[in-house]
Structure formats: C-alpha cells, structure tokens
Design brief:
This protein has about 450 residues and is mainly alpha-helical. It has 19 helices and no strands. Pfam families: MFS_1 (PF07690).
Length: about 450
C-alpha cells in the first residue's frame, strides 16, 4: 500500500535552478564538455578510418573512450574525493584540452592517437565524479532533483548535437573537429575556475587511507546500504534494456532496408531514445511535484521495458523509433528522481566514490547488454531478441519495484546521511551510514533545506 506523504515544499522550477549562478556555470561547462566529447568520438573514428581504412580499428578508436571506466573507473573517481572539486574539474579539462590538440596534429601516427585518446579519457572519471559530488553542494531539496534532471537531459541532447556536429565537421576536417573539442574543454575550465566557489576536499587528510581501501568503501556504501542498493538495482536495470535499440540500430536497419534508406533508418532509431529522454526529462520535472515524481519511479521502471516488447511484432523502423522514444521518456522520469534520492541518502564524503561505482556499473551493463543481444541477433531475428529481452526486463523491474524499501527505511537512510554530513559528527566507516532495515526516524523532519523531504515511497 502506498505510504506517500506530501513534501513540505512545492516543485522547484527551471527558473529556481538556473537562478543559481554556480549551477549556470557548472551546467554550461558540463554541456560544452559533453558536446566536445561526442564531436571528438565522431572525429576520431573518421580520422582512424581514413588513416587505416580499417573498420575494426575505427570502431576500436571509438570504444577506447570507454576503457578507463572499465579498467579503473571507481579508483580514478576516488582521487576526486581527496582534492578540491573545483580544482579536479579544471585540471582535468586542461589535460584533455592539451591531449586533444596533440591528437589533431597531422603527423600523429595511429598508435599514438590510441594512446592519447586513452590518456585523455583517464581524466573523465575524476572529473565527472567531482561534478556529481559538487552539485548537491550548490542545489538543495527539489532544486537538486530538477538540476539532476536538467543535467541528464542536457547529456542526451549533447549526444545528438555532438554526433551531428562531429560527423559534419569531421567529413571536411577531423582535425578541426578535434580542435573544436579542445576549445570546449578550455572554456569549461574557465567556467569552472571562475564560476564555482572553492570548497575544501570532502575527505580530510587525517582520514585518508590506502587508495584501494577508499575505493572499496565506495562499493561498500552503495551495495551495503539497503536504500542505495535498491536505487542502484533500479538504475542499472533500466540501462540493461534501454540501450539495446541504439546498440542494434545498424543491423536492425539493414534487416528492414526496404522501408527506409539504411542510413536514415539507423539514424532515427539511434536518435529516438535520447530524444525521448530529453522530452521526458523536461515534462516530468516541470509537471509533477517532488512527491509525485518519487511515487512514479516504480511504475515508470516497469513501463520502460514494456514499451519495447511490441518489437516482437517486427514493426517498421519508424515504429521502432517511437517505441525507443517512449522507453527513453519513461527512463527520464525514473532516473533523475532515483539520482536525487540517491544523493540525499549518501554522505558527502562518499559522493565521488559512489559516483565512480555507479558510472562504471552503467558502462559495464550497457556494454554487456549490447554484446549479449548482438550475439543473440546473429542466431535469431532482432525483433524477437529485443522483444523477449524487454519482456525479461519487465519481470526484472517488477521484482525490483516489489522489493523497494519501505518508507521508514528510506527516511532512516536520508537522516543517517544528514547526521554524517553534520560537521560536528566525526567521520565514521560506511557501515554506520547503512541504517537498520526499518529503523525509525529519530529526528522527525529535517531542519536543513537539503533534508526537508519525507522520502516515503512504498
């Protein structure tokens, strides 16, 4: 039975969020970096293919940007916890700017391009972890949830714009596209350096231990705390199926070559999910109250994979695109609300590390889903694979929704994080923040703006 309680504050508006000067600087810097990243991915793929005429090497150059997350994402993100977030973001932007300029040099051999791309993307985990950790220090309450939704929506829009801009620019000059990416990092570094306040590191020097141990504590806090673990399962599960139409778009379009030109069919299928996410993020954040968004998380979690089940009927590419867009819309209603609750139930000193765990998990799960469905698509028709994979996603989401923690557990986790964030409270091992299952809320309503919501979602 639902145990929803109304939030004391109404929904935050876009004006409330963009009224914060620090958020405007961070949002702009982040959007520029993302657009530059996708421009560079398109440009590097073209550059390597022109140099080698190898499809495999071109694809490998594209995939190289994901390797740092797979190899050492949580470890690299932990580094951000040890230093000032503003400093981490600015330095990472400058490093990536310099390396992108080197990649653009006309005499750079292919093997050096791979090395430089890999080195540049090593800066992504600490930079993104620092950005994720600093946002809750800028925005509080429902402004944080709306800010997260805007960031996620901007990321999807940046993907579409970056690929389009990168593809067009790289067709004429890959080097120009790479220099454009370097310029976005330069502007981002300036915005971060002069647009954000300088804050002390989340982890005090006296509480540092071995880097591997600190990284392990990131896993411990995410999977050892019942509420954080439930959110992680929900978010990871949504990634398990929502990426599949995009990952199989090229082969799917080839199978239905008679409906549309292959390139056009592939493009609309790949763009559909990000477009649906952008629309869903804006609509849900604008039209629904904080309490309603939390209550919608579980129904949307089940609805998202259900939108792809009609793929079993082998629809046309246009219908496939509509299904993928509907799935993206549902995921956009789920993920920002889940992220907002995740942040509020997480102690400040673990935010960068927890982000590293979550981001790495997303990369692994998305890659796993595309690899498995691609392998199945070699033996069976793609509509059958996507439809059955999505039906299994409905079952998985139903289990995740039914096992969602009750309201008292959620409230206890949020209050435990608030106690841990109190400057008068000494740092403790992560097990103190986990909270007992069903533990009562000791302090009632939180006095700080960051903790005013009663997150009872049962």
């Amino acid at each position: 039975m639902s145990d929803e309680r109304p939030a004391p504050e109404g929904p935050a508006t876009f004006r409330d969020v963009f009224g914060q000067a620090e958020f405007r600087a961070l949002f702009t810097a982040t959007a520029l970096s993302w657009i530059g990243d996708y421009v560079a991915k398109a440009a590097v793929a073209v550059l390597v293919y022109r140099e080698t005429e190898s499809v495999a090497l071109s694809a490998a150059a594209f995939a190289a940007s994901y390797l740092p997350w797979l190899i050492g994402g949580p470890l690299l993100a932990t580094i951000a916890e040890r230093h000032r977030y503003r400093e981490v973001m600015a330095v990472c932007d400058l490093i990536r700017m310099a390396l992108m300029v080197l990649v653009a040099l006309p005499w750079m051999p292919t093997w050096a391009i791979f090395v430089l791309i890999f080195a540049a993307t090593l800066a992504n985990p600490p930079s993104q972890a620092a950005r994720s950790a600093v946002l809750p220090q800028i925005l509080h309450g429902d402004r944080l949830v709306v800010g997260l939704s805007l960031q996620a929506t901007a990321g999807q829009a940046a993907q579409v714009l970056g690929y389009l801009l990168g593809g067009v620019t790289a067709a004429f000059s890959p080097a120009a596209a790479l220099l454009l990416n370097a310029a976005t990092f330069a502007v981002s570094a300036l915005l971060v350096r002069f647009g954000l306040r300088d804050r002390p590191p989340a982890m005090r020097a006296a509480h540092r231990s071995h880097l591997l141990r600190e990284t392990g504590q990131g896993f411990q806090i995410v999977f050892g705390q019942p509420v954080l673990r439930a959110i992680a399962v929900l978010v990871f599960s949504s990634a398990l199926f929502s990426i599949v139409p995009e990952g199989l778009a090229a082969a799917w379009a080839a199978e239905r070559r008679g409906d549309l030109a292959g390139g056009t069919a592939q493009a609309i299928i790949m763009a559909a999910n990000p477009v649906g996410y952008v629309v869903g993020g804006l609509v849900v954040a604008r039209l629904f109250s904080p309490a309603r968004r939390l209550a919608l998380m579980r129904p949307l979690a089940v609805l998202a994979p259900a939108m792809l089940v009609p793929a079993l009927l082998d629809p046309s590419p246009l219908v496939v695109a509509l299904l993928a867009a509907a799935c993206g819309f549902a995921v956009a209603g789920l993920v920002p609300a889940a992220n907002g609750l995740f942040v509020q139930a997480l102690p400040d000193s673990y935010r960068a590390r927890a982000f590293g765990v979550m981001a790495t998990g997303m990369q692994l799960i998305q890659g796993f889903a595309v690899l498995v469905t691609g392998a199945l698509g070699e033996r069976f028709s793609i509509p059958l694979v996507v439809g059955l994979w999505s039906a299994a996603g409905v079952v998985l989401m139903l289990v995740a929704a039914l096992s969602w923690p009750d309201g008292r557990q959620v409230d206890a986790a949020v209050e435990a994080a608030q106690r841990a964030n109190d400057p008068a409270t000494p740092d403790e091992p992560p097990r103190r923040f986990a909270g007992r299952a069903g533990a009562p809320v000791a302090g009632g309503e939180q006095s700080t703006e960051h903790g005013r919501h009663r997150h009872a979602v049962t």
